[in-house]
Known about the structure:
mainly alpha; 22 helices; Neurolysin, domain 3
Amino acid sequence: MSDGIRTAVDQITAQIRELSIDINLTGWQAATTGTPEALDAAAQSRAAWMRFWAAPEPYRQYKNWDESGAAGDDAHLKRIVHLLHLGFAEGQRDLATIDEMTELAKVLDDAYTNFRPVVDGQRLNANAIDDILRLEDDSEKRRAAWEASKEIGPRVADQIRRLAVLRNDAARRMGYDNFHRMSLILNELDPDWLYAMLDTLAAKIDEPFRRAKADLDAELSARFRVPVEELMPWHYADPFFQRAPMLSSYNFDSLFGGRDLVELATRTYDGLGMEVRDILGRSDLYEREGKDQHAFCMHVDREGDVRTLCNLKPTLRWAETLLHELGHGVYDKYLPMDLPWMLRSFPHILRTEAMAMLMGAITLDPEWHAQVLRAPRDEARRAGEAGFQRFRLEELIFARWVMVVVNFERLMYEDPSRDLNGAWWDLVQKYQLVIKPEGREKQPDWATKYHIALAPAYYQNYLLGRMMSLQWDGWLRQHAGGIVGRPAAGEFFRKRVFELGSTLHWNDALEFATGEKLNPDYFVQKFAQ
């Protein structure tokens, strides 16, 4: 029986490989050019991908093989059958729904990629909006930039609601309550565990967050010359208050003026014994008109074609982002090529997020300042002290932001027809303690976040990834003395993390590397005590 299953797996893997490469290459072209032709090709590839996974017969076949244990004692074959079962289960929907979802995704992709808010008669990209919110002291100019960044919301809100309905319809036909729960379950996350964990974490970090935000608000109040109770969303560092502002105590951005971020990143990974020059050589690193304004990493073929898209500027944010994306990149690059193609990946997206987040945060490590930036020891120590305070503030802020997004998606998929604008601001005020400005009641500010539309049920992976990265970090500090400039840390990742591919459940893989399953207390101990 297992020989017949292996033959079927080999045949279907060949199909998946071809479709996967096509969707990646067309997606790359769409992201790097933003042309109608490229966006249309990417949409066609997505449609072909969705139609493949919607086929009912393979779903029934792999579900039966998985649940009956028909693959026998071959651990790799059993894992592949299980992953195929989950993939086909998630993809089950009718062809008319696929066509409508494809068209909606194409429209949304075009809208987000080519949106440039207009401020004082000028079309600005995302970096320019960030610069205003990072540097401008005039509250009215900040407000104008913030409000302009939200103008995409009314353009896309109806399409996102419709997508949510279509996603829910497919989930309910599969016996799930809604798309959010289905997506989590089929990606090997228990939704009830996730929701409860977020509630518990929210309670544990509530007081530390309130204290940290009170200190932050006092500084912002002085900077902008407004009372604390009159601080508005545009007084924070980005359109969503998901990042910490640059505080006056230490200006990290000043460290990167005139620095080559690519050189710094290369030096960082050299210290771990990891080669990234080939990844950088295939990458698209600088901003231009028509290009996706976000950042991502892509493993085109699971055979070594790893590349990243960025929009680099000499700031802390983009130094972190480049190191972050290359964290995804080295994970992909160092996957064993002798594993079956279906297992030549990470067991869950949160695991590669953990690697990326660990490497992004390294810019706040005093050893990185000494070894990579080559700062004098006293300056590196001072940067490290300020860096930890920033890291703590950043993670408390970001954790609360994740709670907004995850709980909003949970509510949206429970009932897409509800008052989503009201739900969004209720969560923002509850978790982020940010005041809702007057006149936002009918503005779909929730729709301005790209992930809500086109990367649904994803945001928890960032927070879970941070938790996992802290667990790895704890192990490395105990067994390798740290990370920066330590080839032993690189060896840990290659042998205990990357080498497993997707052969194990993500939590079992974490236990293999560190001796325990995911433990949120590492986060609490690091940032809330």
